[in-house]
Specification:
Layout: H1 2-26, H2 34-45, H3 49-57, H4 71-92, H5 97-111, H6 117-138, H7 145-156, H8 164-171, H9 175-186, H10 190-208, H11 213-219, H12 225-236, H13 240-262
Helix pairs in contact: 2-3, 2-4, 2-6, 3-6, 4-5, 4-6, 5-6, 7-8, 8-9, 10-13
Length: 263
């Protein structure tokens, strides 16, 4: 019975594919090209935020897909398809998988709250820029597979104590060799890299969550809140509290700009 149902669904999908192709030919509607998708993909993969912005400002070279007969649902589905593309491009550009997938989940959850096509289009543009920015921050710059494995391990366990020995085991080499290779390829000592990535994670939490500095410090395994503030100032030049204040101000200003452009 299950095989019969699967065959029936397969036939429906094939028929709808043929119908869609027929309608496009009848109406002389060309689907947005693979080349335009590739432009977006490459711009995000290479962390080129200026190119991302210019690509969104170009006139589309075709019409979007039809993923639902409901116009708003179709826009949301197209957004989700785009986020999938952005996520893969960012991962290829060096963004840790966990970071890329978390961004993907967050934007997909957010698009479900959008109530019109314009807000979805603006969110798509912001998402593409954000993924490109993450590539700028995390791009692996052709790391060896060994260092890629080490970096992935670090990003996965940012909320837990991380040792050189455990990371070396995950990468399949000795701790002493990992220490030398890590500095050679990343330009940073192992401990410094972990600190930097924890501060980047803290910045995201300060911007997009309501966690207090004390909670963030604990989640990211800093020994004390005062030590967290000291390391945060080392990398960001300001305190966590001031960073959050300025980021929220920037966010509110962006919201006002978007709201005014809707009038």
């Amino acid at each position: 019975m299950k095989n019969i149902n699967n065959h029936h669904e397969e036939k429906i999908a094939e028929n709808r594919s043929r119908d869609t192709l027929f309608e496009r030919r009848e109406n002389l509607q060309r689907h947005a090209s693979y080349a335009s998708e590739r432009l977006q993909y490459d711009a995000i993969k290479n962390g080129q935020t200026d190119r991302v912005l210019s690509i969104f400002q170009k006139t589309p070279d075709g019409t979007p897909g039809v993923l639902s007969r409901n116009e708003l649902r179709n826009s949301k589905n197209m957004f989700i398809a785009g986020i999938t593309l952005f996520t893969r491009a960012a991962i290829e550009g060096g963004v840790p998988e966990e970071t890329a997938y978390a961004l993907s989940d967050g934007y997909i959850q957010t698009v479900e709250e959008c109530t019109n096509k314009y807000s979805i289009e603006k969110l798509s543009q912001k998402a593409a820029m954000r993924f490109a920015e993450e590539v700028q921050k995390h791009g692996m710059r052709n790391y060896s597979r060994t260092i890629e494995a080490a970096v992935k391990y670090i990003h996965l366990y940012l909320h837990a104590p991380i040792t050189l020995e455990e990371t070396a085991e995950a990468a399949g080499i000795s701790p002493s060799y990992l220490s030398r290779l890590f500095k050679q390829e990343t330009g940073m000592f192992f401990v410094d890299y972990i600190q930097k990535e924890r501060i980047e994670a803290a910045c995201n939490m300060l911007t997009y969550s309501d966690y207090t500095a004390a909670q963030i410090s604990e989640y990211l395994c800093f020994s004390t809140q005062s030590y967290f503030i000291k390391i945060f100032k080392k990398y960001k030049g300001t305190t966590p509290a001031k960073y959050r204040k300025y980021r929220i101000q920037d966010w509110n200003e962006n919201v006002m700009v978007t709201a005014n452009s809707n009038i």
